[in-house]
Design goal:
The complex is a heterodimer of chains A (171) and B (594). Chain A is an alpha+beta fold and 171 residues long. Chain A has helices spanning 22-32, 61-73, 105-114, 135-145, 164-170, and strands spanning 8-17, 36-44, 50-59, 77-82, 88-99, 118-122, 126-133, 150-155, 159-162. In chain A, strand 2 (36-44) and strand 3 (50-59) form a beta hairpin. Chain A starts with 7 loop residues before the first strand and ends with a helix. Mean pLDDT of chain A is 90; it is low at 166-171. With 594 residues, chain B is of the alpha/beta class. Chain B folds into three domains: 2-198, 3-Layer(aba) Sandwich (Rossmann fold); 220-382, Rossmann fold (3-Layer(aba) Sandwich), CATH 3.40.50; 396-581, Rossmann fold. In chain B, strand 15 (412-415), helix 18 (419-427) and strand 16 (436-437) form a beta-alpha-beta unit. Classes of the chains: A alpha+beta (171), B alpha/beta (594). At the A-B interface, helix 1 and helix 2 of A face strand 6 of B.
Chain lengths: 171, 594
């Protein structure tokens, strides 16, 4: 079992078959082996036969090692890569519904601008801010919006992709 | 046998039609999903299927009835069919096939599938499912077979298109028996069974299988390092598991062992992979392992673990397992490396190939561990348990010893789970791989008797003995019907002690003798009489005097199953024993030792 102080977040990317039952089998694997998953995001790739999974694993190196090996054992998994020490791009999208009044609406929009976030929708007493970036940035914006009153929030979880240049130089 | 004769008659009527079909290749190419399942199974050379018919799998059974190549053994409960298929697979060294209907048929299989998963046995379960439009509607006899079997299968399928049946059957066979073997479930909705498909042209190439690859190689540099370290070790120990049997690696193992005169300990699953009479064998390791095996591993400076996943029954307190040893671990499953014990030298590969290479690497080495052997021999002198008692009480250990003496060397032994299982492991001398068919990982009470049925079907010419307890036997006693119907001469030896003995032993040792719900004699019928009622041979043994003749009578009975009900000393417990959480070397030799 992992020692608390060694626990870190590790981004993994996995190419999996895009078939029904795969997500359930793999998320079940994490649960039954007691792996601590911080976030899990899945979407179809350019080839509809496959999906790409971005998995953020919490744990020490031994735990990470087991997660990778157990995933690799699965027939539905084509490949798994640990991106912890590999140059990669990481993004998370967050939709934040903030309570707004006519007085403070422009202040919220200004704040969103600083974070290069967009305003996705405006209502009589709310604004939906759409923020994209790494998790730290999104969380920082959330913290600032907190004082206006966040009504609801929806996050995609982190999606990760290895940088192409790095891959070339690896060869 | 009665069963197969009946089937012969039934299939004669179908013979002409089947021949007609094969003559005109055109007709054989277009077929139903149900026919494709049977054709796919025939293509793999499978001769026996275990199972029970039911509504949602009727089209497949209808096609099975027309097959002249496959014998079907109907069991009395689906769990029995799954265990029988598991044992069949272990004895035959090929996938064991089990059929069940949807809903309860499929859910009844699950214990058997989980058992096969834990013991890496290549069982393939085909289940009927409600028709695709009815899936997800809580239809009659609907259960999510794929969801239920996710955590207990190597892989599983829900086939939604008849055209996918041929490739699915082929994939299932390939997956079940390559790499680390394991169970596969194939769920077949009724309309997929009745729907039409065209059987694909050409031969199936197993390696064109995306997402699954079996690496034939291994890291040779690691094996060189392993050879060097092993040869220079002063206190080396080899620990083997069931993987030696799966890989057929006993010969290569013994060549390595003889080269360096290495002591060999075994897990429960590895018993027989080294002949118990071999002087290098130092016994079973772990919770009820031998004193010498547990002491040797505790003192070892080098541990070579092969084909074992080092589970908790082997390691005991893992922090105190082989504390002084450099560990080399050979296993075909990369995920076993570092799962429990972080090896210094991990070698992922087939045990047979890796050990052959290791043997070659050791060619120039000489054995030089006489001092280590004299220490091990001292442990044998100190820690050989005594089975006391006079002739008036029947000691369960003596039943196993007598059985060991009376049975031929090619005998297959199956067990349930509990005290009798450990006595079988300790007192029966296994001489060949897969001779002991037991539930090692899941610990499934009730495994032994249906496993004996599967083993006897797989090996009609070998004697099959099931050593079991009154608790375990009654968990699948209904399979007497199957054994009688099929005329299988299995011998069941019940060590009847009126209790769920292993749990009672724990209550005595660790729960201040509070025997809560472990005494089961009240209500347990005469198992000999029950057997007679089913149409088998029932024999009762109450003391040591009647032991030999009673066992002989049962072993000689060939017309069907025989059950020897041995009323054994009720208070007898299993020793040595490592208390939970303790280091393996701190085993106790008896109640007074605790």
């Amino acid at each position: 079992m992992p020692k608390q102080e060694d626990e870190q977040l590790h981004p993994l990317t996995a190419l999996v078959k895009n078939e029904s039952g795969v997500l359930s089998r793999l998320s079940g694997l994490f649960a039954r082996r007691g792996f601590n998953i911080d976030s899990l995001a899945v979407g179809e790739t350019d080839d509809p036969k496959y999906s790409r999974m971005s998995i953020i694993v919490k744990g020490d190196r031994d735990v990470l090692d087991q997660v990778v090996k157990q995933l690799n054992k699965q027939v539905d998994v084509i490949s798994v890569k640990d991106l912890s020490t590999t140059s990669h791009v990481e993004r998370e999208l967050s939709l934040i519904k903030v309570h707004a009044t006519t007085e403070n609406r422009s202040e919220i929009i200004e704040l969103a601008d600083i974070f290069r976030a967009k305003v996705a929708d405006v209502g009589k007493d709310f604004v939906i801010v759409e923020a994209t970036g790494n998790a730290d940035k999104v969380e920082a914006l959330e913290d600032l919006l907190e004082e206006f009153g966040i009504e609801e929030i929806a996050r995609t979880g982190r999606v990760v992709l290895e940088r192409a240049e790095k891959k070339e130089s690896d060869r | 046998m009665a069963g197969s004769q009946k089937k012969e008659k039934a299939t004669t009527a179908m013979k002409e039609r089947t021949e007609e079909d094969t003559e005109s290749g055109e007709m054989e190419k277009k077929m139903s999903g149900a026919r494709a399942v049977i054709k796919g199974i025939e293509e793999q050379g499978t001769e026996v299927i275990f199972g029970i018919i039911g509504g949602a799998i009727m089209p497949i059974y209808d096609e099975l009835g027309k097959s002249e190549k496959i014998r079907h053994v109907t069991t009395t409960h689906e769990q029995g069919a799954a265990h029988a298929a598991d044992a069949y697979a272990r004895v035959k060294g090929e996938p064991g096939i089990v059929f069940a209907t949807s809903g309860p048929g499929a859910s009844n299989l699950m214990t058997g599938i989980a058992n096969a998963y834990m013991d890496s046995s290549p069982v393939i379960g085909f289940t009927g499912q409600v028709a695709t439009p009815l899936i997800g509607q809580d239809s009659f006899q609907e259960v999510d077979v794929r969801g239920m079997s996710d955590p207990i299968t190597k892989h599983n399928y829900l086939v939604m298109d008849p055209e996918d049946v041929p490739s699915t059957v082929r994939e299932a066979y390939h997956l079940a028996q390559t790499g680390r073997p394991g169970p596969i479930m194939v769920d077949l909705p009724k309309d997929v069974q009745t729907g039409e498909l065209t059987w694909p042209d050409g031969k199936y190439e197993a390696d064109e299988f995306e997402g699954y690859e079996v690496d034939d190689g291994f890291d040779e540099a690691s094996v060189s390092e392993l050879a060097e370290r092993l040869a220079s070790a002063e206190n080396p120990v080899v620990l083997i598991g069931g993987g030696i049997g799966h890989a057929g690696a006993s010969e290569e193992l013994m060549q390595v062992v003889q080269k360096l005169q290495l002591p060999v300990a075994s897990s429960l699953m590895g018993l027989g992979c080294i002949n118990s009479h071999d002087p290098h064998f130092i016994g079973m390791v772990g919770m009820h392992g031998s004193g010498p095996a547990n002491k040797a591993i505790a003192k070892a400076d080098f541990l070579l673990a092969v084909g074992t996943r080092l589970d908790d029954r082997i390691t005991g307190n893992v922090d105190k397992f082989a504390p002084h040893a450099e560990v080399a671990h050979i296993d075909i499953d990369p995920a076993e490396m570092g799962k429990i014990v972080q090896p210094d030298i991990p070698v992922v590969g087939d045990a047979k190939k890796v050990l052959a290479r290791l043997r070659d690497e050791l060619a120039g080495e000489k054995a030089d561990i006489d001092g280590w052997w004299s220490e091990i021999k001292d442990w044998f002198d100190r820690y050989t348990p005594e089975v006391g008692g006079d002739e008036s009480v029947l000691k369960p250990q003596k039943v196993v010893t007598a059985l060991n003496e009376l049975t031929a060397e090619e005998t297959i032994v199956t067990t349930g789970v509990g005290q009798h299982q450990m006595w079988a492991a300790q007192y029966y001398e296994f001489t060949r791989p897969n001779q002991l068919i037991t539930s090692g990982g899941l610990g499934t009470m009730g495994f032994g008797f249906p496993a004996a049925i599967g083993a006897q079907v797989a090996a009609p010419d070998r004697p099959v003995v099931s050593i079991t307890g009154d608790g375990s036997f009654q968990m699948n006693i209904q399979e007497l019907t199957t054994a009688v119907r099929e005329g299988l001469p299995v011998t069941v030896v019940v060590l009847r002690n009126g209790s769920l003995g292993m749990v009672r032993q724990w209550q005595q040792l660790f729960f201040e003798n509070r025997l809560v719900e472990t005494l089961i004699d009240d209500g347990t019928p005469s198992l000999a009489k029950v057997t007679e009622a089913y149409g088998g041979k029932g024999i009762t043994i109450a003391d040591e005097k009647g032991l030999k003749s009673g066992l002989e009578e049962a072993l000689n009975y060939q017309s069907g199953p025989s059950v020897v009900e041995c009323f054994v000393a009720e208070e007898e417990n299993v020793f040595p024993m490592v208390p939970a959480g303790a280091a393996n070397e701190d085993f106790i030799m008896g109640e007074n030792d605790a």
